[in-house]
């Protein structure tokens, strides 16, 4: 396999002119302008849930606007599309600012659910599944992931962004596979990889991502035709060894993309000056030689916990749970015997009523250690 190229362009803010200049420079450095001419495009942002741009849960709408403006000069047809989780499609498009951008730029925006899905053979692991018709019919898919940590996969970026192209039923099946989830994500990605990936790394998310972490400034936009290489560079930037990210490692080992930093050319900015150590999710311990960290990990677990003060009893968590571990009585009740700690309930909760919380299994440790 030939070497991969990742472009890193400085972009300190979401000010419209700065973002547009950065995206245009990135396209130029990547050298793909000719490939964009006369194509039909699907622009696929990360529109996980109904969160405002300032929360850093979703791709910032100004990134979407800048990409749309670049593609409008070359396209025959262009559409923005995604399928947020938990039945929040239309509301997520509204709250995230995506609809406003689409209307102002005169392009169509849709949910994959509205346009329908095509039955496909995904993999031996996922068996027959469904893929968004809009995604499959486009000449070029331009994926706009958001750089974030992730409570179940450690890191989420370009490879994981394709997960939004399959319906909730397939996502539930993938989550139910627990430790095999990264393999399922790569299976979905491999079925139809995006043609171009432009990552919003102006502000990312650390801690309990992908929805309840803390915004963290990085000041970059990253571009590549290889989503695996893009994820490798992005995870390196936030202090994670790319091969510790299972989706990157699995895709690299399968030859679907390049995850080895030694085989990736980074052009544009000198990325080492942008490196930051992002705080990991509570249920992930980065490589740490300290015995205490290992002991704490061994004697504890992270579970989704309900804060009734924020709960509006919408039942989104009940519907998203792949293991049917949540019932209403009258608030959500989590059966931890069934729970596989995938945190999908936390991801879709618009009110942040379900949050990851570390639980120590030996009571005396709870008094000795503040977590």
Automatic annotation (TrEMBL):
Entry keyword set: Iron, Iron-sulfur, Metal-binding
Alphabetized Pfam families for the sequence: DUF362
4Fe-4S ferredoxin-type domain ranges (all copies): 302-329, 330-359
Keyword Iron-sulfur included in the entry's annotation: yes
SUPFAM superfamilies listed in its UniProt record: 4Fe-4S ferredoxins
Transmembrane segments: none
Xref: InterPro entries: 4Fe4S_Fe-S-bd (IPR017896), 4Fe4S_Fe_S_CS (IPR017900), DUF362 (IPR007160)
UniProt GO molecular function: iron-sulfur cluster binding; metal ion binding
Name of the molecule in the record: 4Fe-4S ferredoxin-type domain-containing protein
Lineage, opening ranks: Bacteria, Bacteria division TA06
